[in-house]
Amino acid sequence: MHTTQMKISIPTDENGLVGRQCPTCLEYFSVKFGTGLSTSDHICPYCGYKASSNDFFTQEQNDYIVSLLSKEFIEPAIHDLNKSFKNLERSSSKFIKIKVKTNDVSFPIKSYQEKILETHVTCDNCGLVFSIYGVFSNCPDCGKLNSLIILKRSLESCEKRIKLSETPEASEISEDLISDALEQSVSSFDAFGKSLMKKYPTIFPSRSRNLFQNILLLEATLKDKFHKNIADFVGLEKSQHIKEMFQVRHIQTHNAGVIDDDFIKKVPEYSGKYGRKYKLKKEKVSETIENIGLLAQEVLDLLENYRA
Fold first, then answer.
1. Spatial CA neighbour of 139 closest among 304, 8, 306, 305
2. What pTM does this model have?
3. Residue 171 has what pLDDT?
4. Which residues contact 138 (CB under 8 A, 6 or more apart)?
5. SS (H, E, C) the chain
């Protein structure tokens, strides 16, 4: 039995990534081969299904492969068969006439273009370069959640707002930029937390939708589950700073930055400033951004090493 082999290269996008489609949830993502782990398996970044990378071909890739095989093997075979029929026609005698009508068959190679995805990520655990729809997902190689990578990107953007607020060109909107940096840093931490809540549903209460915005409720949850306060993760001084600035963010968003009863209840040292507007300083917001990154890293490390 004769076996013929043909090496087929799957085209990449402009960034060198190859499209993949999960056979279970049918969601699309892309990976850059040659980065990440030395493995022949994929883990769906959306649903977690794990199988051979050969199971993750997209329909467009399958059509492309079939068209290449048809061009390489079926088209020449049909051409040879037509040629044989023509030879049979030429060899007929005057007593037996054979007429053969054949049609040339052509198999065009099907081209396709990989889809454009929203988030481009390099896994900080295994080094795989991949792209996904949405923002948060698991790495297709090592399975690690990419939430910290995305949070760090967002916090870097917050720091850029702080830097921009210092320029003469932004003098008229300097306060807005500082306030936006605080709002975005807390919102990013909340989004980071939602991805953890989705991955670890047995740890976090499902009813607490904005748990990672409410720093005191988050601390109570961590204390109940792990017997740890925020100070156990980042130290007492940073813990107090985080708690204050999360409350500042709350009054910035819901009370025009004016100190109210709820703020004083949670940050008692401001009891003499009721009804006054909190003066937001860029140094404190910049410190908040740094502390959020530290807290996020510590919480993620705790969860990844957690054994129920």
1. 304
2. 0.81
3. 92
4. 43, 44, 45, 46, 48, 144, 145, 146
5. CCCCCCCCCCCCCCCCCEEEECCCCCCEEEECECECCCCCEEECCCCCCEEEHHHHCCHHHHHHHHHHHHHHHHHHHHHHHHHHHHHHHHCCCCCCCCCCCCCCCCCCCCCCCCCCCCEEEECCCCCCEEEECCCCCECCCCCCECHHHHHHHHHHHHHHHHHHHCCHHHHHHHHHHHHHHHHHHHHHHHHHHHHHHHHCCCCCCCCCCCCCCCHHHHHHHHHHHHCCCHHHHHCHHHHHHHHHHHHHHHHHHHCCCECCHHHHHHCHHHHHHCCCECCCCHHHHHHHHHHHHHHHHHHHHHHHCCCC
Write the CA distances from 211 to 36, 89, 220, integer angstroms: 33, 82, 10
Domain residue ranges in the chain: 1-144, 147-304
Give residue 135's region: left, alpha or beta (phi > 0; psi -120 to 50): alpha
Span 83-131, pLDDT tens digits: 766 666 565 555 566 565 656 667 787 888 899 999 999 999 999 999 9
Amino acid making up residue 65: I
264 CB-contact burial (10 Å; exposed 0-12 / middle 13-18 / buried 19+): middle
Q: Which long-range contacts (CB under 8 A, 24 or more apart) does 176-180 make?
A: 178/280, 178/281, 178/282, 178/285, 179/252, 179/257, 179/280
Average pLDDT over residues 288-307: 94
Sign of CA dihedral 260, 266, 271, 277: negative
Contact 196, 204 (CB under 8 A): yes
Q: Which is more confident, 7 or 236?
A: 236
Write the single-letter amino acid at 243. Answer: K
> Quick check: 222 and 237 in contact, CB under 8 A?
no
